[in-house]
Design goal:
Blueprint (H helix, E strand, L loop, with lengths): L3 E5 L4 H15 L6 E5 L15 E4 L15 H20 L3 E4 L1 H9 L3 E3 L4 E10 L1 H5 L9 E8 L2 E4 L5 E6 L6 E4 L3 E4 L7 H10 L11 H9 L7 H11 L3
Parallel strand pairs: 1-2, 1-3, 3-4, 4-11
Antiparallel strand pairs: 5-8, 6-7, 6-9, 9-10, 10-11
Helix pairs in contact: 1-5, 5-6
């Protein structure tokens, strides 16, 4: 099959490598089946979508809802470059999966609202499929209710026009949606294992995803969680669009 493409934006090498490994393992992919471009490191190279089975955008220290004046030159460049590619993806209904920052970027670019109304502290959260989610070709393979790992300061507050809500949560009403037939986005991180979630909160301990003095409690909550279902979503994406 053609490889998938991960467009990453994490400037911490350990976090970036752990994210890449997470998508490899969740998707059942070999390294030669998942190309990675770190957009925070250099301008986006020319990308021919016909070279890939699908595009993945993971999480980020960036927030799509930041005021333009507050965004660094790197973030502004990354969002311009991703915006141009998203336009082509939407036009072609090309397979796309955006997680966390990916859902914020997709929402804001398509005219929805991303703001700080529904943040979630880093850790597990309960996700429930909607009726549309239960019949979706990817989400329909999941349990109707499951736990997933999150950690975000912003979220989709108003869906873009044409978006189909696939999953919701008690603390965050929009946990996943679809545009067209092949463009997906989740607020939760389907690539995160328990070990990777612990790595993530250690690296971003002081980045505002939880109170620093609550670190021990957050670790305990994560260690006591049972998060396994979301990885099946990445595997379903790979199987559907990778031609398995």
């Amino acid at each position: 099959m053609k490889p998938f493409l991960l467009l990453a934006t994490r400037d911490d090498d350990e976090a970036a490598d752990d994210e890449y490994r997470g998508f490899l393992e969740a998707g059942g992919l070999d390294p030669d089946e998942l190309d990675r471009v770190r957009l925070e490191a250099a301008p986006m190279p020319a990308i021919d979508l016909d070279d890939y089975s699908g595009v993945i955008v993971g999480g980020s220290p960036f927030n799509a809802s930041d005021a333009p004046a507050a965004k660094t030159a790197v973030q502004s460049r990354v969002e311009r470059e991703l915006g141009t590619l998203i336009d082509e993806i939407i036009e072609r209904d090309f397979p796309f999966f955006g997680a966390c920052y990916g859902i914020g970027l997709l929402t804001s670019h398509l005219g929805g609202v991303v703001d700080d109304s529904y943040p979630e502290t880093a850790g597990p959260t309960r996700v429930a499929l909607t009726a549309d989610g239960e019949t979706d070709q990817l989400f329909g393979r999941l349990d109707r209710d499951f736990d997933a790992f999150v950690g975000h300061k912003e979220a989709c507050a108003v869906l873009p026009d044409g978006a189909v809500l696939l999953a919701r949560g008690d603390r965050c009403p929009v946990q996943a949606f679809r545009i067209g037939h092949n463009v997906y986005a989740t607020q939760f991180h389907p690539e995160l294992s328990l070990a990777s979630m612990l790595t993530r909160i250690r690296i971003y301990r002081d980045n505002g995803y939880f109170a620093p003095d609550a670190y021990g409690d957050v670790v305990e909550l994560i260690r006591g969680s049972d998060v396994t279902e979301p990885a099946a979503l990445v595997r379903a994406f790979v199987r559907r669009f990778g031609g398995e």
